[in-house]
Write a structure and sequence with these properties.
Elements lengths: L16 E6 L3 H16 L3 E2 L8 E6 L5 H19 L4 E6 H6 L1 H6 L5 E3 L7 H11 L3 E3 L13 E2 L5 E5 L1 E2 L10 H5 L3 E2 L2 H13 L4 E5 L15 H10 L6 E5 L8 H9 L6 E3 L7 H6 L6 H14 L4 E8 L6 H14 L3 E6 L17 H24 L5 E6 L7 H4 L1 E5 L5 E5 L12 E5 L2 E3 L2 E5 L7 E3 L2 H15 L11 E2 L8
Parallel strand pairs: 1-2, 1-3, 3-4, 4-5, 5-6, 8-11, 11-12, 13-14, 14-15, 18-21
Antiparallel strand pairs: 7-23, 9-10, 16-17, 16-19, 17-18, 19-22, 20-21
Helix pairs in contact: 8-9, 9-11, 12-13
Amino acid sequence: MTLTAPATIEAGATGRTYEVRTYGCQMNVHDSERLAGSLEAAGYVRVGVGEHADVVVINTCAVRENADNRLYGNLGHLASIKREHAGMQIAVGGCLAQKDRHVILQKAPWVDVVFGTHNMGSLPALLDRARHNGRAELEILESLDVFPSTLPARRDSTASGWVSVSVGCNNTCTFCIVPALRGKEQDRRPGDVLAEVQALVADGVIEVTLLGQNVNSYGVGFGDRYAFGSLLRATGGVTGIRRVRFTSPHPAAFTDDVVDAMAETPTVMPQLHMPLQSGSDRVLAAMRRSYRSSRFLRILDRVRDRLPDAAITTDLIVGFPGETDADFEDTLRVVEQAGFASAFTFQYSPRPGTPAATMGAQVPKTVVQERYERLTTLQDGLSWAGNRALVGSEVEVLVGAGDGRKDGATSRITGRARDNRLVHVGLPAGSARPRPGDLVTATVTAAAPAYLTADVPSETPVEIERTRSGDAWDAREAASCAVPAAPGRSRVAISLGLPARRP
């Protein structure tokens, strides 16, 4: 059976439910908050547990090949649901939509809306138009329409918030399609960034993550190469902020003043995520990564000199075209020297439209798989050793909401330490239970490669700091119980965005 856009029905979103599915990086997660906020501001309601949404939005990634497979697999499943769900709409946005635009409607003609990375705020209007006209709507802009941070946002966390400092990228990495999809870097003015941080604090947030494709190149738009270090200090000085993080910096743009800002600003967390990609200088050159492994390691030395307890994490690509056994051995050597707390490791997959996709000497899949397994085994060992070294130390944990899959069965709560390690805290029977957004101090009792455990002895009182974020969680829960939007759904405060300079 062929599905097409639904027949004309009455416009208006009041009471219609939605679901946003997110694939990809932190930028996509942040974009999804804006998509959800825009939908709720237009009258849509988040779908209840176990229900099928009237509108399903898929926010896509285009960085790796399996993103395509995952999208079309999900669209195929949604097609069968749509046949039985009158008036249901499907929207596809994000990087893959920006890249493949017409291909999506050819492969999945039952999709109602396709939109790109530059016009997220158009989604409610495009859904209305598709319903009214009874046909699919495709709108892809080639440049930014409205800076995303001016859009409403729906955050699941009362404690933590993303703050974009820039969008786009000026680099030309041969494996990456992102600059073609998100455009050249455009920086927000510092005052706009700080105004958003202050607005988040007023909403109960105590932790912010500054976000950019290459976050430490912030300032290129207004000619200040030290702007990011200054912004870190200023953000850390906002009254009410307890934790500041940032991701992801580029090694080529990493300056000593950023290290100084991290070390001298108490609210900037002892954590750094910086992509290495490869430990081979020859491969780094082929990737057009404008640094070499020695520079990368020197940056880590400076960070650890100023912040001895910093947890450093990275991204790695295995099997880049032309990668030899010697190149891979260089990567193993640098990873061991770096002593990463953890690493996101990916097998190279060619992306059409990137220079690397047409390079010769593509590495056979079996070789890539073998190298991948060797690298992850090495990193797992390093991660476990680093975590075991923390047994007996005290950690401050920002409690999350539903971060631990087994928390209900184990009477544990889960959250992130200051260095961003995942920590499961075991509470004694009868202990007061912290709320999501509260801070708990406990001693690490065990370690695994991916997390720490801190089981509090039964005779020891749990040290809990009740925070404004916990109060915000209580207020959100009270609002959902007192005035439910619908069975199974919570009312969630929506940030209406901030006035900002148009790029």
